[in-house]
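We emphasize that the prediction below concerns an isolated chain of 840 residues; any contacts that depend on oligomerization or on bound cofactors are therefore not represented. The input was used exactly as deposited, without trimming of termini.
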Amino acid sequence: MTTRHTVAPKGQGGRGAYRTIGEAVRAASPGDLVVIAPGTWTENVVLDRAVVLTAEHGRGSVVIAAPPGEAAAVTVDGPDCALHNITVWGSDAGLPAVSVSPGAGLVLEECSVEGGRVQVKGPEDEEGGTTAVVLRRCRLEGARLAGLHLAGGVRARLEDTAVTGVDGTGVVLSGTASLEAVRLRLERTTGSGVRLRGRSRLRLTDSVLAGSGRAGLLLEDATEATAGESRIETPGAAGVHLTGSARAELTDCRIRGAAASGLVVQETARLSASGCSVADAGANGLLVTGSAEADLADCRIDRSAFSAVHLAGAAVGRLADCRVRGGSEHGVHATGEARVELIDCGIADVAMTGVSVLERAVATLTGCRVAGSAAGIGIGSPAGSTVADTTVTGTREIGVQVAKGAAAALAGIRISGAGAAGLVVDEGAEATVAGGRVEDCAGSGAVVWTGARPEVTGLHIDRPGKNGLFLAEGAGGTFTGVEVTRAGFPALHVAKGADPLFRHCRIRDCAEALGTDEGAQPVLEDCTADGTPLTFGTPAAAPANGRPGTAAPSASATRAADDAEEPEEENLEDLLGELHELVGLDRVKQDVGSLVKLMQTVRRREEAGLPAPPLSRHLVFAGNPGTGKTTVARLYGRLLKALGLLRRGHLIEVDRTALVGEYVGHTGPKTTAAFNRALGGVLFIDEAYSLAPAFAGNDFGTEAVATLVKLMEDHRDDVVVIAAGYPGDMHRFIGSNPGLASRFGRTLLFEDYEPAELVSIVEYQAGQHRYELTPTARTELVGLFEAMPRGEGFGNGRSARQIFQETTERQAQRVAELAAPTPEQLISLEAHDLPHPAAR
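Result of the prediction step, given as a token string:
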């Protein structure tokens, strides 16, 4: 039976009340209750038996203060002791205010400990048993060295407890101590938030470690920790730091604003993290050194001051489905003999290289995405890295580079929109490339430097700003099944002493097929340019970059090849239906329909043996960018093919750079080569007015116009030329040469799209990619297009497609935050997915 003992000052508490807490404890039997009247009790209370001390009037009413010079206010030497609603004051912040001896047990509930730490010691060996401590809804404040120190064989649990204002470490575990902390709030420590030493163990749940002077969570020696749904905010050093052979497992944790690196793993430590995020680290987001290992899954690392992920020494890093965004250096940087494996990871908007591999490090990338970095992937290690099914987009410099002496295997890569060359294989590098695409890069599609001899198979290079493949002096290698389309310079350029083997390569719609320097030794096996066999050693015409190269195929050779690859027949009614399905363009549809009827009449007269009326099929398309001019031009060629008025009906799209040369004598052959590729189809000249600048002087554009006029006359029945550009500027172009006005007898005006039509374009794009606009989103989209400035940067249909792309990107970011999105959520584009008008 529990006996109640009362402690009260003299004159209070009634008969039998004790005047000190110590007297009441000494009089109590195990299991008794000691009730303390309000006041400050200056004494060193020793609990050597299982008693419960409680404040009579609740929390804050009773203070137990250590006498000056005494070590602790409360000393626990017995098992199953408890303090409820009591405040404990220590006499010295550097000493214990509450001290628990080995083998004892204590429960602190609704208590505060101020001006000294809670110190719990357990047995040194397992045979000595354990010391058990529980803190519930407590507050530890104002200690020095440590707020809570658990040493030896201690088993402790914290629930809804705060540790704050510690001049040192918030919580220290050493020896074999173990702590389970639920909803711990630890803040304002000059040292680390939580420190583990020896073989101690920590389980942290739903907790916050904020404002520590050093690491938020520090693990040393052979310690272990698990942390779930917890936050580490603004630590003065690393967020989580592992050394020795420590082990840590983090789940759904947030680490923000670390003064040093967010996650640090050193020596032989091991870190596993899932669903975590690291943001605004003052150094690396993740730093792994020595022989340490880190496994991250579904994690985010944002805005690191150094490289987001850095591995050095013999470290190993495995990242799956992780995202890196922003950062002042590399996205992932591997040095020494480190190994990094990236699976389905995304890296965006870092200031340097998306993935950088140096010294003898090895990287394995599968299904990754790199976007918006200075360079995409840079491999500078000879140890042999692999990149598979990975996309690199929008880099300011090179897309993928295998540096001098490095080795890499690339398979199924896609490089798009690089600001320089798409793929570079440096001097002496070893590389294999299997499949993939390089498109829309500002420089050459792929560059092979001196001494490099890559094995390239099945690579498709489209719309490079310069050459498709550029081989420097002394370079070589084997290129099998490579396709180069729409290159502005020679598709293949081979420099002096280079001896590549091109096997089964296909060149289409390029300024030139092959450019060679004197002393080049390319070997071509079963290669074609626009269907014509491509050989080396025939008379050369000057290519776009001024280097000699093989002459373009003649008109007769091109026609023969075109006939051999004549496209399949298309139905006229189907093509007219396709025309009328285009959004807007009502006036253009009517004009094209009239032309088709006129062409049908011409065709019938010819079949009846009657002379055809005089007719020019060449057209001027006048309109602002993005109004569908190229789309209609391509359809116009197919319509003429269906009418039997063109042999192929294909479209060759060129601009000034594809027609105008760089020196005297260069423009004529260049214009002729482009024209010959269009024989049997449509030559579409975009921004044609640039061939006749307002102040031409000795501009070579006039030579291109004169050449075009002659070729249009020589091949008037085998080609259609469409000149396109801004309405006002096209008048100047037609008037620049007397022969143009007679050959371009009709102008089709492409008007800007109305907001509702732009919305229809977005809806069409959404349908093509299996998205659906909500009714609210559609209404908001109409308003967005109505408010959009119609200035020089407005792109009509292109602007609509850009809006669609931005909307899907924003929707992807939103849906990524959902734990288990439904199919409806995956396809639904909502109003808040639309880009903000101010961002346009």
